[in-house]
Fold this sequence. Notes:
The structure holds 2 protein chains of 2 kinds.
Chain A: H1 2-6, H2 12-41, E1 53-58, H3 62-65, H4 75-82, E2 87-92, E3 94-95, E4 99-104, E5 113-115, E6 118-120, E7 142-147, H5 148-160, H6 168-173, E8 175-181, E9 186-197, E10 203-204, H7 207-217, E11 227-232, H8 237-246, E12 249-251, H9 253-297, H10 299-308, H11 312-351, H12 362-390
Parallel strand pairs in A: 6-10, 7-9
Antiparallel strand pairs in A: 1-11, 1-12, 2-11, 3-6, 4-5, 4-8, 8-9
Chain B: E1 3-10, E2 27-30, E3 35-39, H1 46-54, E4 60-66, E5 69-70, H2 76-85, E6 87-90, H3 102-113, H4 118-127, H5 143-154, E7 161-165, H6 173-190, E8 193-198, E9 209-212
Helix pairs in contact in B: 3-4, 3-5
Amino acid sequence: MLRKILLRNQSFIQLVIALFGAFLGVVFLLVSVHYFIKVTEFGEGSEMLGPNTLVIQKKVSTTTTLQLASTSFSAHEIHAIKNKSFIADVQPVLSNNFGVEFATSDPMLPYFRSDVFIQSIDTRFLDVKSKSWKWDKNSDFVPIILPRDFMVMLNTFMSSSGIPQISDELAKDVLFSLQLSNDRINQKFNAKIIGFTNEVSSILVPKSFMQFGKNTFGTKSQEKITQLMISGKEKEFGLLEKFLQKQHYESKNAQLVTGRLKSIVSTLLLVVACISFLTLLFSSFVLVQYIQLLISKNSYEIKTLLRLGYATHTLSNVFIYYFVLLFGSLCLVGILFFVLIKSFLDEKLQSTGIYIDFNHSIYSWATLGVSFVLFYLVVFISSKRNILNEF
Amino acid sequence: MHIHFNHVLPTPLSSTLQTENSLWNQSLILEKGKKVVVEAPSGRGKSTLVHLLFGVRKDYSGEICVDGQNLSTFSHRTWSEYRNNKVSIVFQDLQLFPQLTVLENLQIKNDLTSHLTKAELIAFIEQVGLFKKINEKCCNLSIGQQQRVAILRSICQPFSWLLLDEPFSHLDANNAQICMDILNQACEQQEAGWILTALGTHVNSAYDQLILI
Lengths: 391, 213
């Protein structure tokens, strides 16, 4: 009966407009937050190098070949790069200055050997657990990260030898060997692949192993830093790319292109998310105005009920329950639309060859949860305050 | 439940010179269970007195204490309990819900305390001659009929005091008497008293105290 008394005198057109706005806000917020998260996560896990990480080097030109200009990075240049706002971290890439031979060392595989380059980068640039990425003299094997191109080459060799090609997973179980040498001595080590990279063209080894190699087999000449490992800040890949072009630095394109696309798409999605949130906020504001208007239109009824002995919270609960129920139903319909839109967009992305993670993002649900709680609080405070004003 | 007026003076009447007989700006105790008639010409503050006691108006100086508790210290929750269990009222302007039926107008009050059964409510409606109108919306009733509904609503709760602000102003003598009897019976059952405001001293019931403002 309380609802019959208090929820009359409603202007349904205003209510429908506010609810429709809130509905659009909910749907677009869910969609944009979901795809923002998925685009941000895109590519993670498939690459051993951390996100937004790339190896840069100076472009080799005629002047550098003629040794009129240097291809190595000076301490000053490294410092200047480190100070750029869009760069999160910079570290030199250590390269071998001794002989390295990579070979298969498993009786199940045909013998294959090749002289290779090995490099070492700091653990913080790698998407790898530090436990598996360490080496000391007592270790059973040297963990290595193999360039994917190298794996392709290895499989080509397998194929030409009439042996089935090996998968990434199988390659991780096979034993390889690394032989370090100089003019006088050499030493063989067991090696195991722990991951693959598209970004570096040489075999990556732990820093401790590289240091050991340099100390034991390395030449005494002064070491030059010709490559740097840098990680760009999220969503600022455009600035990083511009900087690299200006400085005539080069890098593998894949990471840059992905980074640039991710930057553009995630920025767009963030804008959509912000607009959706503002829409939701505006709709909530209209709904709050509507609650105030409704309470003001039913001022006589509220005053009379309070005089009959009804508690303020009993009356405000009628409004809170009604509007939270409306918003909750709206959210449920919003979720249904979100699922439909997501299924349509996922299909479209899949058909164009973009395989993002199609699972639901917990963040979009969390955003909806936060919006719901905020709406509840706004309705709660507004109803309580307006009812108390009638006392 | 005693009511103690300690130099109470409503703000709108503060500029008016108060006589010795006046209730205002005096010390006065209304004892539990007494039947009190407050008589005064129009504009002297009869409704104001009822509204002050019921907490509808709070613009006054002095103190009104109920069983030693100052009304000005009441919280919203205390007012709610007070209006549910201690004091009931018939407003001069009735304050019914026009869109609710006769029965619903009584139930909306009775639901708070479950003081009467539905059968008792119907019996009272019948007693005041409104049985045929039981499901009629109050907006369709005459003012006299509405006044009877408001009188019945006032007994749909336990109380120690019943505040009656010119409750029979639109009733004929016969209906006024029926309603007065119902009110007196409800007061006796609960050992409650009433405060009745009237324009003249003619009241269709015996009373213990007459206050002239």
